[in-house]
Amino acid sequence: MTEQRTALITGANRGLGRAVAVELHDRGLRVVVTARDAAAAEESAACLGVGVRACVLDVTDPESVKRAREEIGPVDALVSNAGVLLDIGSDPLSVPLDVVERTFAVNFVGAWRVAQAFVPDMVRAGWGRVVFVSSGTGSFHNGLFTGSPGYSVSKTALNGLTQMLAAQTKDTGVLVNAVNPGPTRTRMMPDAARTADEAARDIADAVLLPDGGPTGTFRRAELVFDW
């Protein structure tokens, strides 16, 4: 890239989101760290280094997203990382549906809401990268994981959104892809073998895809998965 691009990461105050912010900052992007809590966002940004901005953004709150867009302005890349896993160990026949609704509010509707706020600017600018952090638990090819049904189906829906937005932005210079980082060691999955730093590199690679690169894919590094 010939100019410094700006990347916004949701849920970037810890875990995978913070690791992505570090990786993109190290690769020369101007990074905006967002989180629901102002102090958490500020602390994370301060730890990353010079030039990193912090902003409050709650993906479930339309007014919060609107304020963030007004404060930050247009960005070149969006990493939609904010997510929750609330129903591990349940099953489709007994999971409380209010838990499913809360899961969808963050993992799917929240991601869509933030995309509506920031992607139109990318289309107008003729350049942009959108990366949704998804999961193999939501893949029809793998078979949806029934042990966290709300989470799994929310990621299936997110994969569908990836394909729709990729089709909508085709030939505009905007690339929209989903990354399956695999089980990653974070607060959500403390026993996973893969580190957040390792997964963050795959997400950063999707942010830095070249012009004319793939769009509408489900990927990890150069590996492309079936939906």
From TrEMBL:
Organism: Streptomyces humicola
Record carries keyword Oxidoreductase: yes
A Pfam family it matches: adh_short
SMART domains from the UniProt entry: PKS_KR
UniProt keyword annotations, A-Z: Oxidoreductase
Record InterPro entries: KR_dom (IPR057326), NAD(P)-bd_dom_sf (IPR036291), SDR_fam (IPR002347)
Top-level taxon of the source organism: Bacteria
Family, per entry: Belongs to the short-chain dehydrogenases/reductases (SDR) family.
Record-annotated Ketoreductase domain positions: 5-184
Name recorded for this polypeptide: SDR family NAD(P)-dependent oxidoreductase
Entry annotated with the keyword Oxidoreductase: yes
PANTHER family per UniProt: 5-KETO-D-GLUCONATE 5-REDUCTASE (PTHR43669), ALCOHOL DEHYDROGENASE, PUTATIVE (AFU_ORTHOLOGUE AFUA_3G03445)-RELATED (PTHR43669:SF3)
